């Protein structure tokens, strides 16, 4: 086993200037099943791949509703994500209690990123082993954010994290410029096709109503999760569509 | 050994107070106004005190009641808007949010039995929508087309309600508000004929310099009142 | 002199002795539970002494598509109570992933009110909605959380004027001759509510301007209509 002098606690830098515990936590994100997020001018969409530990078990929860206007998909430790979702729900609720309006996404993401950061600078803590794709709709329109165990966060047009997310990102890199002019249907289609890329190399698995879930939020639509039979209409693209990027003009 | 501590003491009644604030919603903005008097009991103590504030580029606040409490509220709002600025994310509090926030603050204070002794009127204009809301020392919050506080509730509100139309312009609103203040000056002993008028419109918020209202005192009954019975003042 | 007195007991009374933390803004709320519907209604006038600071406030909250809460009394307390209840309902629905039931809402409301037993919310609540079977029920509460499950209730400043009429007309109590108990249809119940508020508005200065009527049915969820009353 590979040994390292500088990874026994999170607060010690290696001579190369790295914090190994944080990097290990980011590995935990890569171990989690893939999630994809995309947005256009009016909507943001998440697509997730649900895994089970065995045939006897139910699937792990990947999508969390935070407030009417916010939700997230997670990759990594579900238990850590539950804690973060509770925190975010409380933040949204408190904001609404005081200001009687929905919490702006940038403020919420900043707070949850700060929570990640605290766990990287204290001896008594460990970093969160989970990456979040947060989508939401506020006064400035739809948003898609990623947070990392390091406490960093970024806003995206399209992003994927989790196992084999690189292949989904490759797909998204080809189409992201067309997303803003997409219809909602086309947006969902891109999300599903990007997610499919993460399982394309695997022989024994394909997207189905059992392992795929979708979530949408937008200007006239509260955060809504589609799973089981509700996700079926969105999976049709797999039968008919190719995995080649679309030109944004074709419709489902 | 001292076994007991002195009880907590607060100011038990307002000391330096402002009078009525009034507001009226218009189709192209909102008008709120206040006179410039801060009384010390029945003494007209500070005669050029501004009770209107610009909170954000689209939001105004007018306050009556205890002046020191009003200044504390001004500091709270400055903190809030400064924090918004520091986030650097272009999100600003809407007039409605600020109104709700003040409602929570004043309710919390009243629940500690140490109220901010004020009536506040919040006015704003965002995305072609006028906003006009009120908060009192109990934390009561409500919105309305016309609002008044203090003596203005009794003498001003009926006039405002009569004058109100949904298609009022800000210019008409200002005229109405001046007329109401004239009436208030004649009858409210804690008022002065020097007012400020503030507007929130698509061009942002403006607060006028204080100016005097013309008043007329040469009514026969004013000039030479003989007795309450044979010569009414009005 | 103060040092000789019992401190804790007197502290509250020494703070702002001439400030009373309560205000009566009036208002009347009525709820009727039918076989397959429920109606919850509330006046919109905000009264204060002999003045009417505004004619249009909202005294009800739609907790979900089966439960509505309406409150008379002090308006600042009303707004706060509704915020608290709505937040608690939201937490429940997010965590449990199912709608908050009528009877659970009644228990929550009762506990929330009693939690402030010694500094009460000055509010008089009615809660109405459909139970698991789709049957309409209503609850009436006092300011500190005592309440009961009934078929019809009125709370607030118009209570003494309206409740006896509702007892007579909805529950067919105190009838001169025993009449056949016929259940009110939804339309009859809505009409009755409009009548009793119109009448109460003639005698109670805190009842007037308008009422919001929330109609709860299994098929349509909560529909809200406004009915104008006199402004005098």
UniProtKB/TrEMBL annotation, chain A:
<feature type="domain" description="Proteasome alpha-type subunits">
    <location>
        <begin position="6"/>
        <end position="28"/>
    </location>
</feature>
<dbReference type="GO" id="GO:0005737">
    <property type="term" value="C:cytoplasm"/>
</dbReference>
<keyword id="KW-0647">Proteasome</keyword>
<comment type="subunit">
    <text>The 26S proteasome consists of a 20S proteasome core and two 19S regulatory subunits.</text>
</comment>
<dbReference type="InterPro" id="IPR050115">
    <property type="entry name" value="Proteasome_alpha"/>
</dbReference>
<dbReference type="GO" id="GO:0005634">
    <property type="term" value="C:nucleus"/>
</dbReference>
<dbReference type="GO" id="GO:0016787">
    <property type="term" value="F:hydrolase activity"/>
</dbReference>
<dbReference type="Pfam" id="PF00227">
    <property type="entry name" value="Proteasome"/>
</dbReference>
<dbReference type="InterPro" id="IPR001353">
    <property type="entry name" value="Proteasome_sua/b"/>
</dbReference>
<dbReference type="InterPro" id="IPR000426">
    <property type="entry name" value="Proteasome_asu_N"/>
</dbReference>
<keyword id="KW-0539">Nucleus</keyword>
<protein>
    <recommendedName>
        <fullName>Proteasome subunit alpha type</fullName>
    </recommendedName>
</protein>
<dbReference type="InterPro" id="IPR035144">
    <property type="entry name" value="Proteasome_alpha1"/>
</dbReference>
<dbReference type="InterPro" id="IPR029055">
    <property type="entry name" value="Ntn_hydrolases_N"/>
</dbReference>
<dbReference type="InterPro" id="IPR023332">
    <property type="entry name" value="Proteasome_alpha-type"/>
</dbReference>
From TrEMBL, chain B:
<dbReference type="GO" id="GO:0005737">
    <property type="term" value="C:cytoplasm"/>
</dbReference>
<dbReference type="Pfam" id="PF00227">
    <property type="entry name" value="Proteasome"/>
</dbReference>
<dbReference type="InterPro" id="IPR023333">
    <property type="entry name" value="Proteasome_suB-type"/>
</dbReference>
<keyword id="KW-0647">Proteasome</keyword>
<protein>
    <recommendedName>
        <fullName>Proteasome subunit beta</fullName>
    </recommendedName>
</protein>
<dbReference type="InterPro" id="IPR029055">
    <property type="entry name" value="Ntn_hydrolases_N"/>
</dbReference>
<comment type="similarity">
    <text>Belongs to the peptidase T1B family.</text>
</comment>
<keyword id="KW-0378">Hydrolase</keyword>
<dbReference type="GO" id="GO:0019774">
    <property type="term" value="C:proteasome core complex, beta-subunit complex"/>
</dbReference>
<dbReference type="GO" id="GO:0016787">
    <property type="term" value="F:hydrolase activity"/>
</dbReference>
<keyword id="KW-0539">Nucleus</keyword>
<comment type="function">
    <text>Non-catalytic component of the proteasome.</text>
</comment>
<dbReference type="InterPro" id="IPR001353">
    <property type="entry name" value="Proteasome_sua/b"/>
</dbReference>
<dbReference type="InterPro" id="IPR016050">
    <property type="entry name" value="Proteasome_bsu_CS"/>
</dbReference>
<dbReference type="InterPro" id="IPR016295">
    <property type="entry name" value="Proteasome_beta4"/>
</dbReference>
UniProtKB/TrEMBL annotation, chain C:
<dbReference type="InterPro" id="IPR023333">
    <property type="entry name" value="Proteasome_suB-type"/>
</dbReference>
<keyword id="KW-0963">Cytoplasm</keyword>
<keyword id="KW-0378">Hydrolase</keyword>
<protein>
    <submittedName>
        <fullName>20S proteasome subunit beta 6</fullName>
        <ecNumber>3.4.25.1</ecNumber>
    </submittedName>
</protein>
<dbReference type="GO" id="GO:0005839">
    <property type="term" value="C:proteasome core complex"/>
</dbReference>
<keyword id="KW-0647">Proteasome</keyword>
<dbReference type="GO" id="GO:0005634">
    <property type="term" value="C:nucleus"/>
</dbReference>
<dbReference type="Pfam" id="PF00227">
    <property type="entry name" value="Proteasome"/>
</dbReference>
<dbReference type="InterPro" id="IPR001353">
    <property type="entry name" value="Proteasome_sua/b"/>
</dbReference>
<dbReference type="GO" id="GO:0051603">
    <property type="term" value="P:proteolysis involved in protein catabolic process"/>
</dbReference>
<dbReference type="GO" id="GO:0016787">
    <property type="term" value="F:hydrolase activity"/>
</dbReference>
<dbReference type="InterPro" id="IPR029055">
    <property type="entry name" value="Ntn_hydrolases_N"/>
</dbReference>
<dbReference type="GO" id="GO:0005737">
    <property type="term" value="C:cytoplasm"/>
</dbReference>
<keyword id="KW-0539">Nucleus</keyword>
